[in-house]
Amino acid sequence: MRLPKFEHFEPKTLETALSMLSEKGEGAYVMAGGTDIVVKMTHGRLKPNTIIGLQRIEGLNEIRFSAKEGLTIGATARLAQVASHPDILKHYPAFAYAAQVMANVQVRNMGTVAGNLCNAAPSAENAPPLMAMKAEVTVVGLKGERRIPLDQFFIGPGLTVMEHGEIMISIFVPSPEPKSGASYKRISARCGVDIAAVCAGAMVVLDGKVCKEARIVLGAVAPVPMRAIKAEGLITGQEWTHELIEKAAAQAAEESKPISDVRANADYRKKMVAVLTLRALEEAHERAMER
Ligand SMILES: Cc1cc2nc3c(=O)[nH]c(=O)nc-3n(C[C@H](O)[C@H](O)[C@H](O)COP(=O)(O)OP(=O)(O)OC[C@H]3O[C@@H](n4cnc5c(N)ncnc54)[C@H](O)[C@@H]3O)c2cc1C
Predict the structure, then answer these.
(1) pTM of the predicted protein model
(2) Which end of the chain has fewer beta carbons closer than 10 Å to its terminal beta carbon, N or C?
């Protein structure tokens, strides 16, 4: 299918990108790696009059980590960069894993974490591990900058709290607490390339045998990536036992609201939520014990 006609700009500064976005109006879209937006344009689902590429903006692709400041990922950092970054592999293995297993090598070499989040698919694979680890995103517009906790970012399939004219510039993930661990699990009909049919992220913080804090985030089983709040509540403040984790996993399945589609039917998805949540909690717990 042919792409519709559009103007294409590659500004070198964020200020120019923001002015262009405002000047060109509702039909203007920014593009990072293009692996979502170009597919939508090719299938005629999106007809922008203007595309503003972000890749030439200097410094926007940086990844910075320090134990004190945490992790900051620039909006044009590629998924492949995240998947192989030594600090991310060491301190945020659940996030590195999500970036390693999604899509294929070509897509990971083009696509970005920011694009994955801004595209706001219910199945966006970076969302569960990042939400579990309390990530926040920074967006900037002509009126200024704001920081948004990722668990308040998504409002519907393809919809976020960002306004037209705003650009996400970075994603921040706090430094992992002592005795904390995180995990990400996914399932798809075919391994690789295929979008996840169900995915789950978990983060736990231990105080001796007690789970001081738990976060469970589910993907592809609701209109937005969702926290399983009741399941989190079952574990928080309790001694860690396999029976309790099984109950929490079953509760997470109860809280999920999947639909049936080409990737899986709703019943199967609910069952898989329990399986993946259990596995994610167990791995997060193991990692917390090691720290
Ligand atoms: C073959 C294939 C397989 C895939 N497999 C997976 C998979 O397994 N799991 C998965 O989660 N996804 C998958 N995807 C989807 C896609 O690759 C990812 O969502 C990717 O991370 C998108 O990043 P991008 O930089 O290419 O986004 P783009 O296509 O550039 O942008 C996506 C959307 O976000 C907006 N946007 C991008 N950056 C910004 C910004 N900084 N500020 C504001 N808005 C912005 C754009 O305007 C657009 O609406 C796949 C895609 C393909 C083609």
Answers:
(1) 0.97
(2) N
